[in-house]
Amino acid sequence: NKDRELYDKEFQQLKDFVLNLETREFNEVPLFSGTDIKLTIDSSGTEFTLPAINLYRGQLLAPVSVLKSDGTNAGNTSTDYYVDAVDAAAHENADEIIANVEHLQIKDDATAVALADTQSGHFNLKTAHDARVALVSLKAAISRIAEHRAKLGAIESRLSFTNSQLTSTKENMGEAKSRITDVNVAEEATNFARFQILAQSGTSMLSQANAMPKTVLQLLT
Fold first, then answer.
1. pLDDT confidence of 115, banded at 50, 70, 90?
2. Using H for helix, E for strand and C for coil, what is the string for the chain?
C-alpha cells in the first residue's frame, strides 16, 4: 500500500546513510571497510590457494574477486561475490565447505556491509516478509555493534586509566626536576647575608688584632 511505500523510501534513505559510512577514514585508515583476499586457482581449476582468513561466523560477508593469472579480471567477473563467512576449523578438507548458491550475491553495487539476501542483495520494506527479513538482520547488526562497543569501551577505559597514570608521573617528574634545577630565592638570600656578615666580622677581628701591637709600640716609644 501507499504507507508501506513511503516507509520503504525512508528506510532506503537510512540504509544509504549507513552504507556511506563504509568509506569514512580516520588518519587515512578505513574505519569500516575490509581488504580483498586473492584466491589463486590453477589452470585446470581443480586446486586453489587461499591465504589465511579470520572471519566471524554468522552474517559477516567475505568478498571474493575472480582474477586471471596475470592479475586481471577473468571475463565478466569485475564485480565482487559476497558469501556467508564459514568456520572452516571444523572441517578437515576444503571440499567439505559447500557454498550455498541462494546466499551468493552478484550485485554491481554490493558493499562490504551488505547482508545476504536471496534476491537483490539489499533490504526493503515493500512486503511484510521483506520487512521481517530486514528487521531480523538489523537486530543482528545492532547486537554486533553493541558487542564491539563493549570491547571498545573496555579498551577506552584502560587507555584512560593509563593516561591518568602517565599524567601523574609527568607532574611528579616535573616537580622533582624543579627541586633540582630551580633556585630557592629566599634560602639563597639568607645564606648570602649570613656569609656576608661572617666575612665582615672576620675582617673586623683581623683589623682589631693588628691594631693592638701598634698601640703597644706607641706606648713604648
1. very low
2. CHHHHHHHHHHHHHHHHHHHHHHCEECCEECCCCCCEECEECCCCCCEECCCCCCCCCCCEEEEECECCCCCECCCCCCCEEEECCCHHHCCCHHHCCCCHHHCEECCCCCCCCCCCCCCCCCCCCCHHHHHHHHHHHHHHHHHHHHHHHHHHHHHHHHHHHHHHHHHHHHHHHHHHHHHHCCCHHHHHHHHHHHHHHHHHHHHHHHHHHHHHHHHHHHHC
- Region for 17 from its dihedrals, namely left if φ exceeds 0, alpha if ψ lies in -120 to 50, beta otherwise: alpha
Mean pLDDT of the chain: 69
Q: How far apart are CA 189 and CA 170, in angstroms?
A: 30
Residues 6 or more apart whose CB falls under 8 angstroms from that of 183 comprise none
Strand partners, 29: 26
Cα distance between residue 59 and residue 52, in whole Å? 19
How do residues 17-64 score in pLDDT, each as one tens digit? 877 777 777 777 777 665 555 666 666 655 555 555 444 444 444 444
- 140, 116 contact by CB (below 8 A): no
The pLDDT of residue 198 is: 92
Nearest to 2 by CA among 149, 125, 172, 173: 125
pLDDT of residue 195 exceeding 60: yes
CA atoms in the 13 A half-sphere facing the CB of 174:
6
